[in-house]
Amino acid sequence: MNKKTRLVISSTGKSLESDVDARFGRCPYFIFVDLDDKEIKNYEIVENTSVRQAGGAGITASEFVAKKGAQAVLTRNIGPRAFSVFNQFKIDVYPVRGKIRDAIKAFINGELKKVDAPTGPMLHKGRTF
Amino acid sequence: MKIVVTGGKGGTGKSTITVGLAYELSQRKKVLLVDTDVDCPNDHLILSIRRKKISDVFQFIPDFNYDKCIKCGKCAEVCKQHSIIFVKDKYPAFIPDTCNGCKACLVVCPTGAIREGKKKIGSVYRGNNFGIELISGELRIGESASGEIVSQTRIIAEESESKIKTDTTIIDSAAGIGCPVIASITGSDYAIAVTEPSPSALNDLKRVLRVLEHFRIPYGIVINKHDISKTFCKKIELFAKKNKIPILKKIPYSKEVIQSTINMKPVNVYNEEYNKYFSDILKNLEKQILKKHTINIKDAKTKKM
Predict the structure, then answer these.
(1) Which helix (H) or strand (E) holds B104?
(2) Which residues does chain A have within 8 Å of residue B98's beta carbon, measured at their own beta carbons?
């Protein structure tokens, strides 16, 4: 049975050799990966425009990736607001660290555990609007 | 009679003077003290009061009934706070923290799928000590609707006024000139602007006086810590003279004032010698109010400060 899944990964750089970024809302890039069963069919590297916001980056970033059809999120940390959006949209979040290629492999092999709560507070203590 | 103590600049001594005045006046009248510095209320500390909560303050947030939701996304479209997130074919997600209760989502929803929900944004407390009744408002940390908390605090204070048959209400406002300060000022009979001899204090004083002018509330100045700068104190006195603003009193700087707040007592309880400052302020205040100081509308518009 072929299982098609679209992943999104917070990335420090523009390639699969980059590291998983520690932050979800303010990572410089998102990498969208289309999996067909256990194979990487396709991937797309997109700049994260939420980085420039004074506040609410978690909300706009989660909206952006949800709109692009992400079904699972791989990142190191996820704050309360982004987590809440994904939770309400039933998009699972998997904390993972290291190289992106390795993270994808780990996901495919079922080694990652999804979280049911934010991993921490907002990393950016900016003003709310 | 409602007196508001304000001043613009923080740290000039509003709370210290408000509490001192309340104590002095409570010797002969029934006084209600209302602490509307809801971001950081202090009056209960100066009065050694362990406050009791009497009310929570709530604000509208949408309560989604997904059975009626047709996933049109209009609610997210109209939400200026970005509190509602809509993605095609999914029910909208809602983040309560940033919601400011405007109800645009409830109005725009074509199927009535949004009902009135609420979130707590603050609380109102009461207490009493030294013969003073205190009503104190407090904003919930992380919320931004300080002005709304001040309004609710004042509504509850009004109810208390009739219940305890208050003669005089004294309102301690926050620093600044924004929404929470405006909500503290409105409806007052007189405003005491507390300032100190420094350029920032004078600048901020002028800004708050313009707000008082707008609301046509008569006012007078108290120069606190007047002896920290003789020259600048003269500048303030000159400014007051030029603009015909009464100076209700000049109070000298003293470490005793700090000591009194650390000991959690009004300064005139900590040291009886301070009574004379507050009785003088009240005397001058009564004189001003009797004068029925009215502001000529034309003067208010052309008054340059």
Answers:
(1) helix B104-108
(2) 56, 59, 128-129
